[in-house]
Amino acid sequence: MNLRTITLQQKMVLYLGIFLGIIATIIIGYLLAPTLIYDQWIWKYYWGPVVADASGHSVSYNGVTALEGYTILSEITYGIILVCALYGLYKLLRKLEIRIDWYFCLALFPYILFGPVTRVLEDTNYFSEPAVYWFISPLIYFQTTLYVLIFLFLGYYLQKKAFARRKTLLILLSVFVLIDVFYTILWILGIRYGASLIEPGFFYVLSILAFLPLLYRIIKKQMMTVNTVIFSGGLLIVLPCVFLIGRWIIGDQWSGSNGTYLNVFLLVIGLVVLIVILVYLIAWVYRKHETIVMYKNPLNLSMLAGHLIDGITSYISIYDPLSMGLPSYVEKHPASNGLMELWPPLFPIVKFLLIIMVIYVFDVVYKKELGKYSRLVNLLKIGIFILGVSPGIRDLLRVTMGV
């Protein structure tokens, strides 16, 4: 059978067969040689590092030691999973005819924040076992992807069916109320997931805030969109985490801290906003030039902002150029560390120039060739944005919270 003649259903069966075959091979291998399969492979390279990260030190199981962080084998594995996941997401969004643009990126922003915000909470030893494991990579990414898919399918269903306003409101209210009820049951049963629990009353207020974008569209008699549902769902999961960080900053701290530095947060965000506005203004002034006008595109500016947050935060937190009395931080990545050793401000400058070059390549050099792949190009841009803003927000919050 020629690959070009394989139907979509046959492809799905083939992929499912490969996946189940891998799982079956691992299970059979574990039953025949548990020490080799689990201790020397799964524990050492995958699960052990997650436990070590949660514990803050290396851990051992049956004499096999696992260290914090990624291993070469796990990085390769997760890289393959990431590529497959991105390809699968691209195919799914294309099949559902969901546009991948700035508005879709904006809808995803709460989920993008969820990763670094919860990682910072994990850095403060907030989460209890076993909940803590769900907030360490790669499980945090699987968890976030699940949330995105839940609200994506809900939004797609509501947009496609185009129910009357009252029915749409009832469906969305039911989802949010069920989540509130579930949280209330956890509270009543005394199930602890962290060091400082959010009282139900505060959780309800956060839930109402998350529901406001949906309510706005209903009041304005606008059709419910996938992006709005995704965005509100993301707010529902990220706002409680932001609330906890706010508690920490105002003094309700559940572990040791080197002091809070809200001035650093304002400084970094202020510099990033200033630079992005300057780039936008230059692009607006020269908007008749095809090689410059693309720099006022919101998605392009978001990539620039994300990597500027990362670069400027690294520079300020490590070298403390304004003598704000920051704790001592070090750069773990050899490339960025090498740039800052040559000249401290070089890292954020190189990041800025690199994103400027990426935008130029995508939107100028290969604009015609990539024109028919706009969904894929925009998905790559969102990925580049995440690669910058996710570590940048985590580092910025760690400095701000003195962790």
Rg from alpha-carbon coordinates? 23 Å
Catalogue the unreliable spans.
none
The biggest beta sheet, please? 2 strands, antiparallel
Helix content: over 70%
Query: What is the domain total for the residues?
Result: 2
Number of helices: 14
- The average pLDDT value, as a whole number, equals 88
> Structural class of the helix and strand makeup?
mainly alpha
Order of helices and strands: HHEEHHHHHHHHHHHH
Shape: globular
Q: What's the end-to-end separation, in Å?
A: 58 Å
DSSP strand (E) fraction? Answer: under 5%
Walk me through this protein's architecture.
By secondary structure, the protein is an all-alpha fold. It is built from 14 helices and 2 strands. The chain has helices at 8-32, 34-55, 72-95, 102-123, 139-161, 165-189, 200-219, 226-249, 262-285, 290-293, 298-319, 334-342, 346-365, 374-401, and strands at residues 59-61, 64-66. A two-stranded antiparallel ribbon has the order 1-2. Helix 6 (165-189) runs antiparallel to helix 7 (200-219), helix 9 (262-285) runs antiparallel to helix 11 and helix 9 (262-285) runs antiparallel to helix 14. It is globular, with a radius of gyration of 23 Å.
